[in-house]
Amino acid sequence: MPTVSMTVNGRSAAGEVEGRTLLVEFLREHLRLTGTHVGCDTSQCGACVVHVNGKSVKSCTLLAVQAEGAEVTTIEGLAQNGELHPMQAAFKEHHGLQCGFCTPGMVMSAVDLLNTNAHPSETEIRDWLEGNICRCTGYHNIVKAIQAVAQGQGG
Amino acid sequence: MTDTGIGASVRRKEDNRFLTGRGRYTDDINRTGQAYACFLRSPHAHAKIDGIDTGAAKNAPGVIAVLTGDDVAADGLGGIPCGFAPTGVQAPHNAPPRPALVQGKVCFVGDLVAMVIADDLNQAKDAAELIQVDYQELPANVDPAKATDSSTTRIHEAAENNLYADWGLGDKEATDQAFAQAHHVTKIDLINNRQIPNAMEPRCSIGEYDQADESYTLYTTTQNPHVTRLLLAAYVLQIPEHKLRVVSADVGGGFGSKIPHYPEEALVTWTAKKVGRPVKWTAERSESFLSDTHGRDHVTRAELALDENGKFLALRVHTSASLGAYLSTFGAMSTTYLYAPVLSGQYIIPAIYCGVTIVFTNTAPIDAERGAGRPEATYLVERLVENAARETGIDRIEIRRRNFIPEDAFPYQTPVVLAYDSGNYAPILDKALEMADRAGFETRNADAKSRGKLRGIGFCTYIEACGIAPSNVAGAIGAGIGLYESAEVRFAVTGAVTVFTGSHQHGQGHETTFAQIVADRLGVPFDSVDIVHGDTARVQWGHGTYGSRSLAVGGSAIAVACDKAIEKGKKVAAHLLEASVTDIEFKDGNFTVSGTDQSKSFGEIIAAAMVPHNFPLDEMEPGLDQRSFYDPKNFTFPAGCHICEVEIDPDTGVVKIVNWTAVDDFGKIVNPMIVEGQIHGGVAHGIGQALLENCVYDPESGQLLTGSYMDYCMPRADDLPNFNLGFTETPCPHNPLGVKGCGEAGAIAAPPALINAVIDAIGVDIDMPATPEKVWRALQSRPQAAE
Description:
The complex is a heterodimer of chains A (155) and B (787). Helices cover 31% and strands 15% of the residues of chain A. Chain A is an alpha+beta fold and 155 residues long. The radius of gyration of chain A is 15 Å and the shape is globular. Chain A starts with a strand and ends in a 5-residue tail after the last helix. Chain B has 20 helices and 28 strands. In chain B, the strands form seven sheets. Chain B has a seven-stranded mixed sheet with strand order 3-5-1-12-9-10-11, sandwiched between helices. Chain B has a five-stranded mixed sheet with strand order 7-15-14-13-8, sandwiched between helices. In chain B, strands 18-26-27-28 form a four-stranded mixed sheet, sandwiched between helices. At the A-B interface, helix 2, helix 3, helix 4 and helix 5 of A face helix 1 and helix 18 of B.
């Protein structure tokens, strides 16, 4: 079996995987980083979004071996020194989550949005989130949370 | 109101773990030595099985066991039970058995044919592909309206003509008489489109067997762990309930699809003992589409009789409702007693009759989906009301006002069983009209016209019956369980309060809302209250969460348990303060001798009760913990008015929602932030049904055509508007909190409001979902094209 090594949340991680092992399986099953979720099998729902080399990626769409040598950040790596990331804090403040299942992917995607476009319009936020499905919130409060961070009024 | 008490938008206790990736969903659990299960599912909608060859699969690498229906039968497992058989049927219940793995026949695409258990998941999947099944295909039917046709192939031996039951509610004779004397009759034929609930977390179950005490544990994604334990232990495994523990920690949404007890749960539990290792199964989304219970699927003709003044005289409904291929746990409840009893809506309708032909089709089993029966009823009533207004020339708001149950008529007995306890509908409508700027619609409409767009406004004034349910009523309508709720309040010597609730959280925020109730009731710090749910080994008993029941029933149980603790606390305080118990007052967490400054805090009373050095031991037991079993006196009856405004591009048929106003009366509100979130999500679910979502089976082959997120259109962020919310408050008179429930309201109110708006814009009737293609075709069908 091929071996793969990468940096996950600032720590080096390596393991033997089958060629068909997806990045999300490597994170969940090998590293037991279960914050990244699998909500579908067609790369539509976005529950598995992580950052690979700073960009948001659906980790069900990448083979683990494709992330060889990459810097991966998962939802577990977002808070620093016990302090929620502003996006996490804003989701809490604005009630942008209910069951919490889509939340890790939603937050990781939203962080990348603001890295890419610091002051998106509401339309741009909603368009960006097209690849993240939430069944609970109707997106209303997710959009509000992202707007609050963009305006420097997160949590 | 304190900043953490009832009425405060307290930020949620549970959020930190979800936001940092530390949720405890079932698939996040891994048990030492666990093996993995993969299910072989039927590729056919209807077929006989002449043979299954598992030889090659059994010899594949890593395979521990390959099991079929014969193995299930050999071990004497019971079938998957149904928890509800409606009373009031005109033809007998034809309940076919559902073995956990099929025997000799498959009845829908996704039916369970075989189970493979292997050391790892890929080995199980690879081996499943080696199983050879000899199918003999049979004609399939997916249409509820055709199920009883003589030309339709029978699915179950037990169900002649594919009929489960002919069921009816109301006074047929009085209804027919009223129609005979009507000044005007409005008729409508409609389809309430089949939905797939699509909780974002796929189902997952892990079975485990402990040889030491011969007990099982099932970790599973359920909305009601104790009900699942009862059904699985008593009916399938046929073991004492205490030998099975069901754990349902964090669950990623339910929406009704995680109420039923599923065969996969039974199979992983059964095989855990058989193979001597924990067995884990996680659904892939494709399996969820095929095998989660679906919702709705009604074909209905409805008629409303009116007098010359536009007053409603009678409502007559006939529905063909599908159960899918098998009876799910509460499948026949959504098609009967959660449906017809709300047909009176917010109106006085002197006579109502509803007949339902409940049938089997070659499709996934039907069970509750957010609203469960009440969206179907509300949709037809509100469509009829607006059509009747158009046909009689009465304004759509005016016709509602003329027929509203007036404020002084409560409690109001409807002709379809329910007695509404409270309500005040006109102020809700007034507030909604003002918030939606109904008066300015014509100006906006003219502006839209000038831009070549079609603008429409639609209304829904809905009633909901929730807070399910008084146990004697549950028994009278055919439920196999009571529907009270239990709570236990436990105190730690150092002051912390732990509440064990039979309600189950899968997004509703109970850990926060319930803690607010306790903090408010006992006057203890919010942060000192922890809520425990979702584990039959920790929680005494419970019926779980569905039917917008958690706050009204589960929350009331918590309030009653708190009140019992206060009552005992008064006796303790009386002893400590050397006063008569009748002189002790409890307020804001302090027990005070009336008219004095002598008092003891709740924390001091806890300590005195649990370290009883100075305690009336000859009069009372030590300790302060209390338990309650709260049985509601009635359903609760939230009501509201939702107003939707749309703009349609006549060239493309695309419907854009330009305004959504919702005014709801949920009685007393504990956490407004959470309630607003429930409305947002419920409305989004309803908009999904009305505009985007449609579960489609091929009418010939019975194949599921909408089996992925590429084919089944879930609402995305760019499909939805912001929501404009308002509230009125008519407290529930019969529960200790005055609360009514809010989880399903949006999904009930949204579809008729939206479709009524589309019809207002395009001028012709249309069925859900109003996709661009359907709207465009409807526009072309009009006698004259839009100006």
